## 1
Amino acid sequence: MSFEPPLTNKADQDETDELRPKFNADGLIAAIAQDADTNEILMLAWMNEAALRATLETGRATYWSRSRQELWVKGETSGHTQEVVEVLVDCDQDAVLLKVRQTGAACHTGRKACFYRTIDPKTLRLSQS
Amino acid sequence: MSFEPPLTNKADQDETDELRPKFNADGLIAAIAQDADTNEILMLAWMNEAALRATLETGRATYWSRSRQELWVKGETSGHTQEVVEVLVDCDQDAVLLKVRQTGAACHTGRKACFYRTIDPKTLRLSQS
């Protein structure tokens, strides 16, 4: 079953109380995972329609792996699952925000979160925090 | 001047201390803006190379407007600027996280942040928080 399409009037899309996700040309929507307790941003990933539906139905964060081109139940292999506390959608509904309880590391490098390097604006070097 | 290209070895890209942003086929990278004080997620937008460079050079969040197809200095028209406190990059460098001090509303609807609706997983209705 497909989701309802986005409303053509932008202001209506901003204010509707209906879920009408706006997938991009590749059929994807951006998904930010944020730690529900600390508000730390854990990762940014992508969902297709099936991933968004699975996330809502199972309460377990499920993404679309662009590299593997397959549905990706987060932590299915690693055990590093994300229990979904809340899912929010942005104004034009082309991005979702998952508030999650993360088991273990969110990042495939073994770090808690993917955003572990800060850019020095002068030198453009990265430093790990 | 262009940024250095991403490293072909994925593990090297994850660990390098060089800024090597990975732009998508449209030349864009996802940018999350987070309130530096409250950690609230304000918005998700896009940057091309010029926008990322301008953000780093000016300390004022600058995005690429996909609808207008032009560089978008956040708040240039509305006054709702974002002073950049810190810019982080994720593991594979295809997303950046801006920690910002937001003046006024981040969302074009006049709300503080764009993620103002929660999805009810059972009914798929949105409720405003």
Note: Chain B touches chain A at residues 3, 14-19, 30, 32, 34, 38-41, 43-44, 56-57, 59, 86-91, 95-97, 107-109, 111, 114-119, 121, 124-129 (CB under 8 Å).
## 2
Amino acid sequence: MTELTEHVRDFARERDWEQFHTPKNLAMALAGEVGELLAEFQWLTPEQSAAVMTDADLGPRVRAEIGDVTIYLVRLADVLGIDLVQAAADKLADSGRRYTVEAAHGSVAKIVGDRPAGS
Amino acid sequence: MTELTEHVRDFARERDWEQFHTPKNLAMALAGEVGELLAEFQWLTPEQSAAVMTDADLGPRVRAEIGDVTIYLVRLADVLGIDLVQAAADKLADSGRRYTVEAAHGSVAKIVGDRPAGS
Amino acid sequence: MTELTEHVRDFARERDWEQFHTPKNLAMALAGEVGELLAEFQWLTPEQSAAVMTDADLGPRVRAEIGDVTIYLVRLADVLGIDLVQAAADKLADSGRRYTVEAAHGSVAKIVGDRPAGS
Amino acid sequence: MTELTEHVRDFARERDWEQFHTPKNLAMALAGEVGELLAEFQWLTPEQSAAVMTDADLGPRVRAEIGDVTIYLVRLADVLGIDLVQAAADKLADSGRRYTVEAAHGSVAKIVGDRPAGS
């Protein structure tokens, strides 16, 4: 991960792209790549989506999109000075306190109900 | 990263959430979290976005959103059996061939022009 | 639609929000609202999603999110000087030429295959 | 707008695409198109984004993406049985009560601060 972060940083610097890489722009680029990832899944049934990596055409495309998303996320975190893995671990610990195993067990209602109307 | 992947996997299993974690659903959840990240940046100037981590209110929120995005990306890659870091490294190597340092130097047109009209 | 466009424009002007409403910022705000819409659907089965409006809790939330998405889309089009309905009609005519009834009939492959790998 | 809705409905029916058009799938398709719209703006400065329609290359592309976004939004609302314009008008009235002209005047903090940390 550290190596990837440096690799992406070098990639941007060599091309003089640092001028474009504000956090705002990188968040947009990340969202654009996630949109392409969504497009691969949008018409698939749950079952088709679960088997997507066995498809000779879709599998490599999904992997490439996951790669793109990761590149921009790594770059965004680097520019912000955030340790990606630590930020995720902290958030997971926080979520563990909010969704205890007992209360959240198998409950989609709990998850769906997390966002108040009008938010 | 391996540890985080296992941590997220355990988190889902303990709550019996694996039934909801199809690649399609996780891609949507990832996009939803990226939407929340975008919302933090949407009204900021480029300069404000560059200084976002120095803001006592915004900084921790951006870090938490980055954490959420990472959690879902790690979980999605795990469910798909994709090595996140390797997928990104492969994609970066591919992009390096498509955007050579010479051709892409400082050029936003090159980047913007990557997507054909009507795509 | 014309009335809504003017209503949204007045809403922004009265609050002196025009300074924030660049096309770039509005595109981000639109994406943020779409992210909230996605979040309402992310864990639902296809069947649950089809029945979402009959749910006393989810139905009004989905309608409110659709409202938010529409507001930002209308505002973005207004700022860009684009006639939303005409732009959609033109694009639909274009898509009709690209996806003829004969070739596209019932085919998800055709739709999925529209995006080249690595795009 | 009514005409466009019917036009999009016929377009889907003629191609036997109704089977793919669950609200969940259409929300994803909408998000995918918004992702493409974001991609057009991601590297632009605020000033460049404000002038995007005067660009011979970018202008038509942005208009086409706006068209795509509108098509899927109209289709989604149709499938859900939601009146798009009315949903937006209702939400705008609701927002008017939450962001009064006095309190919200020129304030980005108010807007940014609308989402609680961890949401």
Note: The interface with chain D takes residues 24, 27-28, 31, 36, 39-40, 43-46, 57-58, 60-61, 64, 108, 111-113, 115, 117-119 of chain B (CB under 8 Å).
